[in-house]
């Protein structure tokens, strides 16, 4: 606490500095004054907590000093020293809030008690001031939050200048740590990043809403400085800099305080779309938001099994290019999805698990090093971005292709025969197989007939019949069950095809093995 001592008598002024132990009482003497004019000037300039003031001094009396100081807003405490015990002086002093009126010669013990009491008053003032400041800041934060979120749209009853909301433009920025799995400390200062003074919240407000760190930029200068920060992200930010630790989402610029919530809605929407960011992308701006007409709930119309069939087919045909194209098409489709990120992750997990099931069912005797279901689910759950999951799927599918290896011959027809022999029970058609191998179906049909010596459909029927003969020899399934097992839905059609290729009916063939 700071004290100013004023007295026109040099001896008294000197003595008042040492008559009591000011430091022990918690005070430091910041200045001295020898006349009334000097005392008033220093009071208004230095704002001491306590003024020890002689009532009669040249140029201005102690009462005049107190009156003028109070009129100009001085809230400090006074102890008056007087050579006479005049009641009228004491009354006037009390009127202007003087704490003690002491007569000269000053009694050391009496002064010490008075100063000690004033110390208590000052401490109470500090507590009240802190409490008032906290209440005011809390109220201010609540109002700012309500303006940002749109809960408070009618601002006519507010003095907007009190909130520095009488400027020309506003913009919302939400920031969070870039490396989401790593610990993050707010060791940086946004005002320092903007290189702006933020006294009385004139440049920006910082609030937290539902654990989100939100900056409300205020005025053209602050918005312009933020744009300069964004320019540093045109290339990767310097390693170890505050910018490297941040991910920023910013909404549109608005030009009325009533519209601030629109910028906030943009930024919130962008944060939800962080899942779709590309590698080393630190920023999402409102211009990155897709058109609302383009967005749709993807998972309502799409089924994981259709994608699983496509990927399983590409794996079996060793078509890595087809896998990459299909993954790119899937990634582009998901970009416009309005589904929750968790639901999209589960959708992608389902695709992987179905592909794994199909491949293992088709090649039951082969050792394919698929990841366990639990490990792949846990891995996908931990990923923050879609591109990371797409990379996982590509890696897994490529590994599967390598594990399957190539058939004995390297020709395209041998690859097709290999595929038929492992998928004959499905509804195979040349029109669906040809694209898997990158061919036109008409051309592939001619090429197949030329090299195999029979048509695609004829070869497929012979493969099915050969497998049905093995099942008939085992004598564990009924004829209609065998027909379904090898891919004939109509048992009469199966009978017809079997007799064509074998020369007798399935029942007659079975009798040879009873």
Mean pLDDT: 86
Distance between the termini: 112 Å
- Cα gyration radius (Å): 43 Å
What is the percentage of strand-forming residues? 5-15%
Number of strand segments: 10
Global morphology: rod-shaped
- Proportion of residues in helical segments: 40-55%
Strand order in the largest sheet:
2-1-3-4-5
Notable features of this structure?
single chain; alpha/beta; five-stranded parallel β-sheet; rod-shaped
Description:
The chain is an alpha/beta fold and 514 residues long. It is built from 21 helices and 10 strands. The chain has helices spanning 10-18, 36-46, 62-71, 87-95, 108-149, 190-194, 220-231, 260-272, 298-301, 304-316, 320-335, 341-362, 373-382, 386-404, 412-423, 430-436, 441-452, 456-474, 479-485, 491-502, 506-511, and strands spanning 2-6, 28-33, 50-54, 77-82, 100-103, 170-177, 204-209, 212-218, 246-250, 283-285. β1, α1 (10-18) and β2 form a beta-alpha-beta unit. The longest helix is centred in the N-terminal third of the chain and has 42 residues, at 108-149. The protein is rod-shaped and about 140 Å long. The N and C termini lie far apart (112 Å).
